[in-house]
Design brief:
The chain is mostly helical. The protein contains 19 helices and 3 strands.
Amino acid sequence: MVFQHGIGGSQDLPISLPFALAGGGAALAVSFIVLALAWRDPRFDAATQGRPLPASLAAAVDGGWLSRLLRVLGLLFAGYVTWAALAGPDNGANPTFGVVYVLLWVGLVPASLLFGPFYRAVNPVRTLHLLLSRVTGGQPSQGVLPMPSWVGLWPAALGLLAFVWLELVFPESNFLWVIRLWFAAYVAVLVIGAAVFGDAWIAAADPFEAYSTLVGHLSPFGRTADDTLVVRSPLVNLDGVPPQPGLVAALGVLLGSTMFDSFQDSIAWVRFSQGVAMDEVLLNSLALVAFCAAVGCLFSAATLLTPPAEGLSRRSMPMRFGHSLVPIIVGYVFAHYLSFFVEVGQQTLIYLSDPLVRGDNLLGTADLQVDYWLSLHPTFLAYTKVIAIVGGHVLGVVAAHDRALKLLPRRDQLTGQLPLLTVMVAFTIGGLYLLLTV
């Protein structure tokens, strides 16, 4: 199993780079013009819109039998993988690597798109905290101290940065001791923090739950302001992303790290890094942080230039428009990791039947074969990836336009969006360039 994302370089993607860049930029420009002419009133209101799900299903999800079943399954699967991580051999046939870097990190995106905040429902740390609270006679939501309002998603943003650094920069990320240490720290930080602040800390600090929850706002399942479980348009659901401190930082890490993952394999970066008298880990660490910071700063600068309506703070604009980055992230992740997820994900399912690598077939998947259809059809894969990036950016423009109609003065509702549109075009061109040239 080779832990490399995608199917290789641009020679595998038979699309003209100028054609893709021109098409992507034109798609965004045309979509903005169409929206400006035909979309003059806000249409998305996650607080009130949606069709309520049947009461029996809502009860099952909200603490009922389905909620309990998912908690048990999540805890059992975490225990199964922990067994492989602690007792299995330290080689590529151990399923731990595939579970962490493929099924968890990449797989939570399609799972969250389909079912909403999927990881929150199966989060083994939440279940562990719930069990500890029951043993001690407390309530999971109650801690020793109240959660400060400024915390927001800042802990999750730092956790996301720590994970992508482990995956993309640390040279020994394919050794079990590293994964054991990282997840031991992950569990300790969440459990201790939840004991102090209650389970609100898990929502704020768990990088995987925060990621899944953000992506889950593009699913058809959401909640209204009175917490009613509803089914509705994903774009209406996206309107429900709460503006909070650290939101732009978390989104910047998600998009910036994926771009860096493409960039670090480029010939230009390899030559540059080899010619610089600096430790490779330090150099890559600085580059990773620079990519993440660049995304966050460009987006913040563009939204700070948008004039807010009376009564709104200009400083709050980046977090109020932050939801528009979610479809861009999903599109780029889909394009960048598609074949990696499908093919290495299949290999991981095969390895899961033999967690100790001794010839077992505990789950009945050991005799399956990996289907490499995507790699054998590069034209289909190439167009799928370009459509994913451009489509994600178009959805981002739609979400930003609808939000601008709510937040900007009427006289500035079109011109005020131009800085953000410019940045989105830059993200599109940058993403397509990295996809087709690296």
